[in-house]
Design a protein that fits this description.
The strands form 3 sheets. This protein has a 3-stranded antiparallel β-sheet. The chain has a 3-stranded antiparallel β-sheet with strand order 6-8-7. A two-stranded antiparallel sheet has the order 1-2. The chain has helices at 30-33, 57-64, 68-77, 98-107, 122-128, 133-141, 166-190, 192-207; strands at residues 11-13, 19-21, 54-56, 82-87, 91-97, 119-120, 147-154, 157-165. The chain has 8 helices and 8 strands, in the order ββαβααββαβααββαα.
């Protein structure tokens, strides 16, 4: 007697090539159906050798000019694809997509020995205005102060440092002092209410 097709057991392929019964309402955990990130998609275990066009964490750190821990954190933050590779019997190491690492290297800030001409660090910028660092960042976001990011050597290694234009800081300082003088004069003439009005007027002027 021939077996009817509707009587055959329906199966599907799980992780590692195992066959699983495929019935309506029957579910399996993701660890059985899909490999974890970085693992081999067919076996669900670390790769036995590095995939093509990949670099180790040490090589990626050398390309980025940072330590291994900083390189790993940066690569994870940029969601660079990684692979677990089994080295020896118990040691597992990370490998990364070479193309993505190279893209990060190309997009990284240029190296320099110190502050470029006509620019200062955030401490000197805060003293020039004067203001808090959060206020300085707000002025930068609003386009009132030009900045430039460079990688410079520090005590803890190469780090990205932001520098601020001295010319823009001077212009902004003059304007802020003018606004402060106007507020002081309005307060002296008309009292407290005028201070609030002048502050709103200054905010509208800066927004433009």
């Amino acid at each position: 007697m021939a077996i009817q097709p509707n009587l055959l057991l329906r199966t599907k392929i799980g992780l590692g090539g195992i066959r699983l019964l495929d019935y309506p309402g029957l579910t399996y955990p993701e660890s059985v159906l899909k490999a974890a990130p970085g693992m081999h998609p067919q076996t669900g275990k670390p790769y036995s050798r590095p995939p093509a066009n990949t670099v180790s964490s040490a090589q990626a750190a050398a390309m980025l000019g940072t330590c291994i821990s900083s390189a790993r954190a940066r690569l994870h933050n940029h969601k660079v694809r990684f692979y677990f590779v089994q080295v020896g019997s118990s040691h597992t190491t990370l490998y990364w997509s070479r193309r993505k690492v190279q893209e990060l290297v190309d997009s990284a800030a240029k190296r320099a020995r110190g502050a470029p001409r006509g620019m200062v660090g955030w401490r000197q910028a805060v003293e020039m205005l004067p203001c808090t660092r959060s206020s300085l960042q707000r002025h930068v976001k609003n386009g009132r102060v030009r900045t430039r990011c460079l990688r410079v050597p520090t005590v803890s290694g190469m780090q990205t440092v932001r520098y601020y234009s001295v010319a823009d800081l001077g212009k902004l300082r003059t304007y802020l002092l003018f606004c402060a003088a106007q507020e002081s004069e309005a307060r002296r003439r008309y009292g407290r209410g005028s201070t609030r009005r002048s502050a709103r007027t200054r905010g509208k002027t800066l927004a433009r």
